[in-house]
Amino acid sequence: MVGGRYDRQIRIWGEHGQKKLEESKVCLLNCGPTGCETVKNLVLGGIASFTLVDKDTVKPRDLGNNFMLSTTDVGESRAKAVAAHLKELNAAVVGSFIDEDPEDIVTDNPDFFHDFTIVIATQMPMRTLMALDSVCRKQNIIMIVMRSFGFIGTLRLCIREHVITDTNPGDNIHDLGLTQPWPELCNFVSQFELDTLDGVAFKGVPFIVLLLQACDKWRAEHDSKLPSNTREQAAFKHMLSAMRRTHDEENFQEALNAVRHVCKPKSLSPTLVKVLEELASKNLCQSTPIFWFKISGISAFLAKSGGMMPLVGSIPDMTCTTDCYVTLQRIYQEKAASDAKVVEHYVQEALVRAGRQRDEITADEVRTFCRYASNAAFLRWRPLALDSSLVREDKIKSTSQGAWDYPLSTLTYLVLVCASDAFFDRYGRLPGTAIDAVRGSKDDFIKLKTIADEILGDHNLNGHLLDNLICETVRGGGGELHAVASVLGAIGSQEIIKLVTKQFVPCEKTLIYNCVECTTMTC
Amino acid sequence: MAPEMSDVELAKSSKVLMVGAGGIGCELLKTLVLSGFEDIEMIDLDTIDVSNLNRQFLFRKRHVGMSKAKVARETVLKFRPDARIVAHHGNVKDSSFDVDFVRTFDVVLNGLDNLEARKHVNRLCLAAEVPLIESGTTGYLGQVTAHVRGRTACFECNPKPVPKSHPICTLRDTPDKPIHCVVYAADLLFPRLFSADPNAKSDLDEEDAVELSAFTRSPGESPESFAVRVYDYVFRTKIERLLAKEEMWADEKRKKPTPLPAFTELVPEGPTAAAHGTDGLNGDGNNSNNTMTSTACKALGLRDAHAAWTDADAARVFVSSFARIVARDESDGNHGTDKFDKDDALAVEFVAATAALRSANYGIERKSLFDAKGMAGNIVHAVATTNAIVGGLIVIEALKVLRQRKAGGDAGGVATPVPCAPCPYRYTFVKQHKSNSRLLEPMEPDPPNKSCVVCGAARVELVCDVESMTLGRLIDEVLKKKLGMNAPEVNAPETILYEQDDGLDDDEIEQYAKNCKSTLANLPAGGVRHNTALRVSDFTQKFEFDLIVTHRPGDEWDDEEDPDGYVLRGDSVSAESNENNAANGENNEENGAVAEDVDDCLIVDDEDEIKAATATAGTKRKRDDDDDDNDGGGRGDAKEIRIE
Ligand SMILES: [Zn+2]
């Protein structure tokens, strides 16, 4: 709706993105500030529902870092209290809560998660997360893992497969299809008899016409071939320049700038290449998402066109008369429509082959898809289980040694995060959360340092983490600083929105946020 | 060494001023309170709109229309009854928020939307020697910058590109972009047709006297006949006349417009049916409410706000919304609607329809109702997540600034910089997370710019025609609008030309009013001519500089190049009129030239664009952390754009 509650965000991700968000069912595990801030942003955006899982009651210290709790909530169920405040934010969102330990649900009732689109796991130990990962992975549920401790926050997405139609690449290079001009375009081009035009009309010939006429001339002299290497391109430019009458014809300048358009078709984006490779390994069937059928249409089109993508139908601004421009616009739009028709035909064939309804994908959907297809992307996240052993090991080994001093390197933080994970798994709590705060923090310091040294030893790395850094980590402890939770939660909700709307490219690796340095690192 | 204060202690002992309680402001206030800040004052002029609710989470539907500052305070107090928050529902440019007021704070945090107010706060902070944290967001992009007098650049050290103004003749006769058609509809045609003052002159009236009646309703004329008459005039007659001016189209590059078919040809069911659609327009003497509230699109069954209309549908919406606006103004007692308002659904429909028809005239890409609204209302994309990131970053930066300030002695004042010590402050940019870019990009702040008009010692040169530029225009357009002054005082070498003060006597008031109407050349004491140096100051901002006037006669100006009819030059203002900002200008256009909302502003674009922009924006910065695996290029340079 224009002017409504979601007006400002629809301007980013469109009505179709908003619709997907409004169908999303979110589950939050543990109602600490990071998780609450994440869900807060999603509720504001207009998800379908949220379910909060937390076993704790509200303690006075929760009020110090969690805005979704008020003084009157102390002693209440934390999940219940947070749910009530979250519901206040947006009446359209359904909310519920469960007073149970999230870890118990993961072990005892994994089917519980099947109802959700998104599971947000916060402040959980690695071994539980790995179990949850395999549950979500089977259902292709979006899982996001977040943890904040002290001045550091980490975020990791875990999804089996994710496809993006609209990656919002930002560049807007027009594919003009000039390597393979089609009859309507050729007819238009041949109407111009450059020699007969007066000076003014000559300057008003669209550059596309100049280029294609030059191509004809070149082909006639070069065995019907187009200029291929740089030397030939230079010669082609020379030939084009020779057609000029003066040196201030802007249409010729535009033609010279666009010579690459006639030499070879626009190369496919690396992300699309990856998508096509993935398609090749797939057997389209009843359960295959429709994205892959659309892509198979594109793939078949590419095979037939010799590597040329279906045209999008838009043309750049150019120096020419209005008549010419409007005619060219029409020619390109008609070509785009007929290309889309061809793609549609292939898509339908693929659907039928897979035993599905021919009209499962509408002509409109195919047309829209053709517009974005050149930047489509496919992502896959490795299982968390691999993260903690193999890959991390590999990463640490391949990173050069040293850099233990300030400014701290990614390696430093990686070791610190690994050590905290190991601490959590070993002692069932985060460093710095001992009941006896004074003695406990001294103990925790030694424990964490020992674990860090073990990790370093395991990977044959010299040196050790700065005592200061370990001290800070223990001091920050399980206490989530609100400023860190707020930033991390915001990043988390933003990544979720990218995933749900299937727009923009989400983070493929583990993201480490350092609030002191204002940096995000990925590894 | 004395033990360092913890962040919470630091927060507890500091007094902060927040300017703006919108998208960033709500997040900021929450995070401040939860980080231990106990002494917070906040200023905001705005009231709550329904489109704020997707991110300004301290507001509920029942708060629509109420003061943002007051509601934000009340909501936070409900959660944290012991927080000390003072809310001012007012304009930060108001004289009660003066330098002495600002001096009582340890840091000022801006979450503001408009450039004028941001410049004003910058000057207050410089004068009061209080550090300022600036911020802005648009869509997924955002930024936080620290400005500490003497230590880092002030907010105005790097010139801010201003939104491109469109030459009137382009808008009126030779549009070639969608934005031209939208601005024509909203800023020229709309007020010309619907303003309460029937004699209000507009830029559309520079034509033959016989045409002056074209935009005026004849006595007894029905709203829809009037609408059709305007349709035929604007989209047909006027276009035909333009085509007849051959010299105008001598340049072949200029695309010639095509007149549209007559209304009755395009819309076979005729104007009355089109205007009414499925519901009654005027009723039959029995004017029910729903006919007044219904929009043209609803009546015509055009439900998809994202679709581009056909010419016929655009013509229907034109006549229908037009007639509805006329009927509404009539029933309101003919107050008229002076200015386009993006929250007025009928006005939005009228503008979208006009722009669509005009695009058809000129063969320009056609925008949907949704897009036209965004462009005409200068609506900025805004989402909760980016504001939340930026709100958190502001607090973190504020703590750094406060720590430095406390280290400089509790007496206040800015910490004396230690030579060679690394600058503790950061500019942080929030970006889209693409495969090769980081989400957060911290940068070393720029040093102060010695030739900054505001914090340095620069002189500003104004090139204009002294025979036609009036003092009033100089004050309104140059000093207030372009240079962001609040209460300027203008001194010629021999006399005071203008000042604003409650204590003026009647003679002075009369003299200044007379001066404002006078051209520069005719001002008292010999007039202001080529090479006159004016001393300009603003006591509310503790800001003054020399303005050197350079005369360039009227016939030497090119409308296309300098639509304003004057040029400002100066080390730090020059970029405003500089061609180099073309990239920024375009970017602004896409978003509609001027931001309206609270979440706007200074933005660093993504890396690909950063590279392209180095040459133009010139704000080169060094990345200061070199430690991760994303070395995909784009290292180093950034541009700032303002979506304002
Ligand atoms: Zn400055």
From TrEMBL, chain A:
<dbReference type="GO" id="GO:0019781">
    <property type="term" value="F:NEDD8 activating enzyme activity"/>
</dbReference>
<dbReference type="InterPro" id="IPR045886">
    <property type="entry name" value="ThiF/MoeB/HesA"/>
</dbReference>
<comment type="similarity">
    <text>Belongs to the ubiquitin-activating E1 family. ULA1 subfamily.</text>
</comment>
<dbReference type="Pfam" id="PF00899">
    <property type="entry name" value="ThiF"/>
</dbReference>
<feature type="domain" description="THIF-type NAD/FAD binding fold">
    <location>
        <begin position="6"/>
        <end position="503"/>
    </location>
</feature>
<protein>
    <recommendedName>
        <fullName>NEDD8-activating enzyme E1 regulatory subunit</fullName>
    </recommendedName>
</protein>
<comment type="function">
    <text>Regulatory subunit of the dimeric E1 enzyme. E1 activates RUB1/NEDD8 by first adenylating its C-terminal glycine residue with ATP, thereafter linking this residue to the side chain of the catalytic cysteine, yielding a RUB1-ECR1 thioester and free AMP. E1 finally transfers RUB1 to the catalytic cysteine of RCE1.</text>
</comment>
<dbReference type="InterPro" id="IPR000594">
    <property type="entry name" value="ThiF_NAD_FAD-bd"/>
</dbReference>
<dbReference type="InterPro" id="IPR030667">
    <property type="entry name" value="APP-BP1"/>
</dbReference>
<dbReference type="GO" id="GO:0045116">
    <property type="term" value="P:protein neddylation"/>
</dbReference>
<comment type="pathway">
    <text>Protein modification; protein neddylation.</text>
</comment>
<dbReference type="GO" id="GO:0005737">
    <property type="term" value="C:cytoplasm"/>
</dbReference>
<dbReference type="InterPro" id="IPR035985">
    <property type="entry name" value="Ubiquitin-activating_enz"/>
</dbReference>
<keyword id="KW-0833">Ubl conjugation pathway</keyword>
Automatic annotation (TrEMBL), chain B:
<feature type="active site" description="Glycyl thioester intermediate">
    <location>
        <position position="169"/>
    </location>
</feature>
<feature type="binding site">
    <location>
        <position position="44"/>
    </location>
    <ligand>
        <name>ATP</name>
    </ligand>
</feature>
<dbReference type="GO" id="GO:0016925">
    <property type="term" value="P:protein sumoylation"/>
</dbReference>
<dbReference type="InterPro" id="IPR028077">
    <property type="entry name" value="UAE_UbL_dom"/>
</dbReference>
<keyword id="KW-0833">Ubl conjugation pathway</keyword>
<feature type="binding site">
    <location>
        <begin position="113"/>
        <end position="118"/>
    </location>
    <ligand>
        <name>ATP</name>
    </ligand>
</feature>
<dbReference type="InterPro" id="IPR000594">
    <property type="entry name" value="ThiF_NAD_FAD-bd"/>
</dbReference>
<feature type="binding site">
    <location>
        <begin position="20"/>
        <end position="25"/>
    </location>
    <ligand>
        <name>ATP</name>
    </ligand>
</feature>
<dbReference type="GO" id="GO:0046872">
    <property type="term" value="F:metal ion binding"/>
</dbReference>
<dbReference type="InterPro" id="IPR045886">
    <property type="entry name" value="ThiF/MoeB/HesA"/>
</dbReference>
<feature type="compositionally biased region" description="Basic and acidic residues">
    <location>
        <begin position="632"/>
        <end position="644"/>
    </location>
</feature>
<dbReference type="GO" id="GO:0019948">
    <property type="term" value="F:SUMO activating enzyme activity"/>
</dbReference>
<dbReference type="InterPro" id="IPR035985">
    <property type="entry name" value="Ubiquitin-activating_enz"/>
</dbReference>
<feature type="domain" description="Ubiquitin/SUMO-activating enzyme ubiquitin-like">
    <location>
        <begin position="462"/>
        <end position="554"/>
    </location>
</feature>
<feature type="compositionally biased region" description="Low complexity">
    <location>
        <begin position="576"/>
        <end position="595"/>
    </location>
</feature>
<dbReference type="Pfam" id="PF14732">
    <property type="entry name" value="UAE_UbL"/>
</dbReference>
<comment type="similarity">
    <text>Belongs to the ubiquitin-activating E1 family.</text>
</comment>
<feature type="binding site">
    <location>
        <position position="157"/>
    </location>
    <ligand>
        <name>Zn(2+)</name>
    </ligand>
</feature>
<comment type="subunit">
    <text>Heterodimer.</text>
</comment>
<dbReference type="InterPro" id="IPR023318">
    <property type="entry name" value="Ub_act_enz_dom_a_sf"/>
</dbReference>
<dbReference type="InterPro" id="IPR030661">
    <property type="entry name" value="Uba2"/>
</dbReference>
<keyword id="KW-0862">Zinc</keyword>
